[in-house]
Amino acid sequence: MIQIDKAILATTFITPGKISAGEGQAGPYTQTLTLSNSSADSVTYDLSYESALTLGGVITPSFYTSDDYVSFSASSVTVPGGGTKTVKATVHPASGPEFGQYGGYIIFTPQGGGQIYRVPYAGFVGDYQGIQVLTPATYGFPWLAVSMEGSFYGPVEGPADWTYTMVGEDIPYFLVHFEHQARTVRVEIFAANGKAWHRAYNIDYMVRNSSSTGFYALPFDGTTFAGNKTYTVPDGEY
Questions:
Q1: I want to staple 197 with a disulfide (CB 3.0 to 4.6 A). Which of 13, 43, 54, 189 is the partner?
Q2: Cα–Cα distance between 91 and 93 in angstroms, integer?
Q3: Do residues 52 and 103 lie in contact, with contact meaning Cβ atoms separated by under 8 Å?
Q4: CB burial class (10 A; 0-12, 13-18, 19+) of residue 164?
Q5: CA–CA gap between residue 77 and residue 150 (Å, rounded)
Q6: 206, 158 in Cβ contact below 8 A?
Q7: pLDDT tens digits, the chain, 238 residues: what are they?
């Protein structure tokens, strides 16, 4: 919540106003904080921090106490009237849960009383690129599937299982479970002999499934695209 009255009357300004520590795999993150004092008098701040809860999980999130901590280049900092001063804060990432998010606040407490300032920090536990976007879920996805009377059947593993007529609902469906959102999803079609038949899908900012058993059914109508050109895939094995 923004305290507008205190923000207007504040005589100390701290930049940056937040710390994004990034991936914990890279180790501790050090940020230089600059304090500017617009008043005529110097002020000395004691430095401390307070951790918030750590969040783990995407579809079914859980909350944990965190073992992250912040160290400082000095335990206190004196900012002269009309001047500036810098101090370094090093955020040491939480050790778990894997792929969790942690955070907290760096606290500047004036000696002798006065307005307290806080700078939020946040980071990620581990390597964000290590998250598995597609998972098998309950049914062993991804599937090449058949749609019949509103239900899906599969997985189709070859012509002996099913040959699509490409008439009505008798077209291929790609059943995929997204455990995590994806920046780009690309589906490409290849003939059995390896010939590329371009893209069936190119989706930006694909959202995850809302449950651990949910899935997306992506229909393939036999057409692909490359740039602005559309292709009709001929009969065959793919």
A1: 189
A2: 6
A3: yes
A4: middle
A5: 68
A6: no
A7: 566 656 667 899 999 999 999 999 999 999 999 999 999 999 999 999 999 999 999 898 999 999 999 999 999 999 999 999 999 999 999 999 999 999 999 999 999 999 999 999 999 999 999 999 999 999 999 999 999 999 999 999 999 999 999 999 999 999 999 999 999 999 999 999 999 999 999 999 999 999 999 999 999 999 999 999 999 999 999 9
Strand partners, 103: 122
DSSP state of 26: G
- Cβ neighbors of 217 (< 8 A, separation 6 or more) are 145, 147, 152, 173, 174, 175
Question: Model pTM?
Answer: 0.83
User: Token pair for residue 165?
Assistant: 């007529």
Kindly indicate whether the domain formed by 4-130 is annotated with CATH number 2.60.40.10: yes
Is 24 strand, coil or helix?
helix
Q: Where are the domains of the chain?
A: 4-130, 143-232
